[in-house]
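Technical annex B. To support the medicinal chemistry partners, we prepared a structural model of the target in complex with adenosine-5'-triphosphate, based solely on the information shown next.
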Amino acid sequence: MLSSLNKKLLRDILHLRGQIIATALVVACGVASFVSMQSTYDSLLITQQDYYAEYRFGDVFAHAKRAPENLRASIERIPGVASVQTRIVSEVVLDLPGLREPVQGRIVSIPEHRSPMLNDLHLLRGRYVDPRNSREIIVSGAFADANGFDPGDSIDAIINGRWRRLTIAGVALSPEYIYEIRGGDIFPDNKRFGILWMDRTSVAAAFDMEGAFNDLSLTLAPGASEQQVIDEVDRALEAFGGTGAYGRSDQLSFRFLVNEFAQLRSFGIVLPLIFLGVTAFLLHLVLSRLVNTQREQVGLLKAFGYTNFEIGSHYLGLAAAAVSGGLLLGMLLGVWMGSWMTTMYADYFHFPLLNFSVGFPLIVYSILITLASAAAGAMSAVRNAVRLPAAEAMRPEPPASFQAGLLERLQMTRVLPSSARIIFRNLSRHPVKATLAVLGISLASALLFTGFYFFDAIDRIVEVQFRQAIREDAVVAFNSLRPQSARRELAEMEGVRSVETFRAVPVRLRSENHSKRVALMGTERNPDLHRIVDERSQVFTVPPGGIVLSDALADTLGVAIGDQVTIDVLEGARPTAKVELAATVDELMGMNAYMHIRALNRLMNEDDVISGAYLEIDPKYSDVVYAKLKRMPAVAGVGLPGAMLETFNETFGKTIGQFTSILVLFSSAIVFGVVYNAARIALSERGRELASLRVLGFTKGEVTRILLGEHAFLTALGIPIGFAVGFFLCATMNNLMDTELLRLPLVFSQKTFVLTALFVALAAVVSGLLIMRRLRRLDLIAVLKTRE
Amino acid sequence: MKRTRPATVPETNDGAGLIKPAGGPEHIVGRPESEPQILNSMQAIFRIRGISKVYRMGDVEVHALRSLDLDLYEGELAVLLGPSGSGKSTLLNIIGGLDVPTSGEVHYADHDLTRATDSELTQYRRDHVGFVFQFYNLIPSLTALENVELITEVSENPMKAEEALEIVGLSERMDHFPAQLSGGEQQRVAIARAIAKRPDVLLCDEPTGALDVETGKIVLAAIERVNRELGTTTAVITHNVSIARMADRVIHIGSGQIVSIERNETKARPADLVW
Ligand SMILES: Nc1ncnc2c1ncn2[C@@H]1O[C@H](COP(=O)(O)OP(=O)(O)OP(=O)(O)O)[C@@H](O)[C@H]1O
Ligand SMILES: [Mg+2]
């Protein structure tokens, strides 16, 4: 049989269902965000590791100009090396049916016959290449998807200066190109950059590389030192134009993945913490005020000898109802969302396998974290109930002492209508309650504000990177160094409006024990097309001497302006030089190093040579220009920033958008939870007073105005404070999510302010309507007869 | 400390035998209607010595009780009379272990209520005390029956909740919520709740304040019966002088002190009271 105290608990729960549901929803949001993000993170990590292990992703990578195949044996003998795969890798220009602009392909050699290799392929469709047919290729999944390729289709490519028609035999994935991005790009453009795997003999024949390789990948034996192996490999390849071996941490695809995961992880910690913080706050609000309205009942229980423990458990039971309901709902929602997000990410990354799992520890953690936050919120309220002196609790709360307050002193009494006077007196009489309510509303507003902010940040990145910094229509990369005269060649093409040149050199920057591999960009003095723009949209000019680093890179190297930076050039004669850090620039994306092109040419001990050029193209002539570029033997590839932006919006932007929508949805639930709770509690606390007013002849409308007017006022106060709290929330989140690839700018659009205010106001109105319904059904007699 | 509980035998009174024997070797059978000499032979179960209670409200001090001495005897029915604000409820709260005096000592049998810890006071209330409050204090979310059960569930030797409600004449209203009861009915539920646990001490703060004469008599009869049949030490606060006629002793309180104590030579039956 249910004890009477438990019956009371059940009826209290039923009576307070609105508040309990509102609180449970907030708990559910917190738990769901934690479970979904952490399970996504865990699952992706496991999937990535499984993928890497199963398909033998390399540990160390190196490129060279041309090394004899027999070098392979000596590299295999380097202590710590487990296995070595040599390859021929080359960039080619492609002509895709239906695409006017040139496309860049990367040809990577594979064994003639299917055999286990490092960075192995996972065939999605079709079959392995037939060694008897030198024109067969396997294309990467993302590239095939973006262009709608299927086995049997063909692609035209310029291979070693000659057009060749290649036939697609299969479509495959590789752990090496999870993130299929061209070096130097900030976002993948899967439509215009893809990997083509071709059998080794055919590649060697096409590029005159028989008996030689220009690329290798190796795996390490357990316990081997990566750095020692890298040094040995560098030494072995030095005579053959090696550009410096590097580990996974410098492998493009791996780096992007690590960054994505890191962001997901910090998001998955910060966000739930905020939600659960709000939960604690809400529980505190609901319980402490409930205890207050039930002080006489607490007194009665005490008078008849109910122990503190029994009374404490009784009120904790109420918290438990909200929390356990929310926990269960959140858990289910979290698992469902987690599997959805994991599928989304796995799709985005083109993982061939998917291991979605919610680990037992994660379940335990989420329960513990939720209980901890619930306990934090409920404790003080329950303690108050327990501490309430029995005799004290038995007398009805004495009428609040009214003093002539601010209102009177300001002589406002005559100006304001009586309902406004009641509102203001009530607020000034309960400053703590009012402050807590405002705090809750501002916290909820802050969350919403943060949600909308992410759209602003992405917009800003797009604005700075794609409209202010990268203004060229196309980037042309030459397959070997060209004299400055190549510039004129491009400029004279019909439809090309202006040309800017650049020199890109693979280098390793060092300072003390820090080092980083980057492409050192030699830029023109006052570029107009491809500019360097900092976070505040300031255009940066590279000084004639010294090196310039982006803030992120300077931080990584631990250098400040005026320090010497050592540059190990990784191509050509591989000179080493010390250069002064002339300036740093606060860029939003990437780890970048710049020098003036002349200074870089001098450092390289070379004439005025360029690696490529940025073009501004008259849209009317773009087809003509693209067609010409496709056929220029010197051109290794063409990048199109506009197309990249399109892809960005379709993939990355969409992912962030979905993510942010969830954040906004959750925040709205919290706004509603907080606002509804605050108003509902006020109703039960002041039901008597309001009923008395009604008995005294106040109309329903007037009474409603008094109660809801107070809440409108508190909400209006909470929103701007929420903006301030939101600002700090965003700043904190930014610091946590700061990765080497991307830094979110702290900018806020008007839209964010307006939408936040609008959503909060909407939640306030909805809860106001719900309260109004209750207020209208208020049974005057019953309220006056008993205390709630 | 455990007192042996007296039991009842059938009686000629109205509602006789409603209080079932609770067991115990000692049967008090048909005690004479007035037996003043019994008080002399009885032990003072409450010994109250020099208690004061001061409420501090900012700069103002309210002296609710001023160095008050009082003995209450086991099994007696005492009525407390006094003007509003004289400290009656304060005294009752202290006797009931709800509150502690600012100074002075209160002993219940071998319990020192002034030095007891919070949990000792809780245990004291749970084991010995039944309250009827000035403001009923029913739990609005529980029915009349459940309000009584709330207390019987934590008592060692209670009567059935239905029985207690029957004594106060509320059998018909057991499943009503407080909001569906009149003020007097609520008060009767409060009394049923207090007597249902068969307390050793029954403390009533204006139990008939909201009742008409007839209902008032039913309620007083219930209190009197518990006092008589169970030997429950009973203290009743009232503003109604005529109720004082049913007491063993009438204690007059004024400005936080005992003004006088009268002993009734003959106790009136509740049914015979007029007011
Ligand atoms: N918690 C409190 N804080 C301040 N003063 C108090 C408090 N409780 C009681 N008092 C004061 O102590 C005095 C005695 O109060 P008490 O409630 O004991 O009176 P009473 O005799 O029961 O009156 P009534 O017959 O009106 O119920 C009163 O002056 C009252 O104002
Ligand atoms: Mg009183």
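Notes passed to the chemistry partners:
Chain B touches chain A at residues 93, 96, 98-99, 118-119, 122-127, 129-131, 133, 135, 137-142, 146-147, 149-151, 153-154, 178-179, 183, 193, 197 (CB under 8 Å).
Residues 1-38 of chain B have pLDDT under 50 and may be disordered.
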